[in-house]
Amino acid sequence: MTELLHRDLTGSILRAYYDVYNGTSRIYPERFYDRAMVHELTAKKIHCVQQPEYEVVYKERIVGKQILDILIAGEVVVEDKVAPSLTRLNKAQLLSYLKVTGKQVGLLLNFGGPKPEFQRLFFAPREPKVADAYAERAVSNVERPELVAPEMVYDIVGGLFEVHSTLGMGFVHRIYANACYHELKLRGLPARRQKSIQVFYRDISLGELKFGHLCVSDTVIVFPTAIQSIADLKLDALREWLRVQGVPLGILANFNDIELKPIFLKPRSD
């Protein structure tokens, strides 16, 4: 029988988790459970680092930084949640963090459910060609929009899938925006960074909002996002921005989706 990696350490972490879960209410913000876990583990003489910061690297380019909940004994990444139950997205996020840190073992600990719930995750690095193959298969399932510059659009979408399959989920918007810019430049596409968009209400500009997006050859605007649900965005606002900029096509990609599903947008017509 194969021995679990860091079995004794994860056993100690889980015992601390049960102690904290049973000794607290279910109503606190996440940071309180983080502190309680660090207290319990430090009392057991287990070294903990709360909120360590790691550089996120995409194809040899630093695209941002990610702050973790707790790194324990330099080996196990712990992600605390306060939710009714753990989700597939929570698992995908922790796997992304393991990839960034180069660690192999992570624990998802939920303090918000009616009973203790945890998941132990193991990350095995994979060859880069696996990500490339995934991107190619995913792009082949995307119908080329009969709009403008279909070959360029196809290449952009391929780049978005490449970023999603390489980084995974769980990072902030700017990390995906930086990675998308780097990927499109690697593909020889004339991408330009943009830092803000105008917010409109009934054709009235309410001002500018910081929002990293990319213009490609004055033909396409790429909107990388990392939000809980695409329904939280008002797509008409993005269509209005396309109209104001005189750009015929927008591509919206939410990198917090387990499966990337690009949305093609046309400018709003008057």
What value does the average pLDDT take? 87
Q: Count the DSSP helices.
A: 7
How much helix, percentage-wise, in residues? 25-40%
How many domains, as an integer? 2
- SSE run: HHEEEEEHEEHHHEEEHEE
Rg to the nearest angstrom?
21 Å
Q: What portion of the residues fall into strands of 2 or more residues?
A: 25-35%
The largest β sheet comes out as: 5 strands, mixed
Overall number of strands: 12
Shape, principal axes of CA atoms = elongated
Class computed from helices, strands and strand pairing: alpha+beta
Uncertain segments of ≥5 residues (pLDDT<50)?
none
Major β-sheet strand ordering: 1-4-5-6-7
Cα distance spanning the termini: 67 Å
In short:
This protein is an alpha+beta fold.
Overview of the molecule:
With 270 residues, the chain is α+β, with helices and mostly antiparallel strands. It has two domains: 7-122, Lambda Exonuclease, Chain A (Alpha-Beta Complex); 146-265, no CATH class. It has seven helices and twelve strands. The chain has helices spanning 7-23, 30-43, 88-101, 128-140, 150-167, 173-186, 235-245; strands at 48-50, 53-58, 61-67, 70-72, 76-81, 105-110, 117-122, 191-201, 204-216, 220-225, 249-254, 263-265. Helix 1 crosses helix 2 (30-43), helix 4 (128-140) crosses helix 5 and helix 5 (150-167) packs across helix 6 (173-186).
